[in-house]
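Risk register update: the risk of archive-format incompatibility is retired. Evidence:
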Amino acid sequence: MALYAFSSPQPLIYYDHHQTKTITEILAALEGYGRVFLIGCAKCATVCKSGGEEEIWQMQEQLTASGKEVTGSIIIDEVCHMLRAGRDLRGRKEMVGEADALLVLACGAGVQSVSSANEKRTIAGLDTLFLAISVASASSSRNAPSAANVS
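Archived output:
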């Protein structure tokens, strides 16, 4: 397997791409949990339109229509940052405490951070499809990343 190193004078932006699970899959995972707290991500999931404010609002509507009680929600700047996720969840302690489960619309690392920061059942609402790297402001081939085979 060949490995490639990318070099660029421009900053790299790491993000992943997600796919929202179907409401049927989410409701199956939430079976036995009546009250849910929703967590979205202001970075990757917002960019991919799978876990930002609009998607959290839509999920709240779907869950409420399905008989679930949503105790609250939060969009964390970077859910995958464990300390930030824990701090932000403590700021919503009462709403999180009222929930039977937490539904996370973020990547797998975000789900893990939330799970590590609390004792509640934590459920992934997205499937992470891939990790990507983008070069900021790569407007010409001179600024585009160059790949060098290092295998």
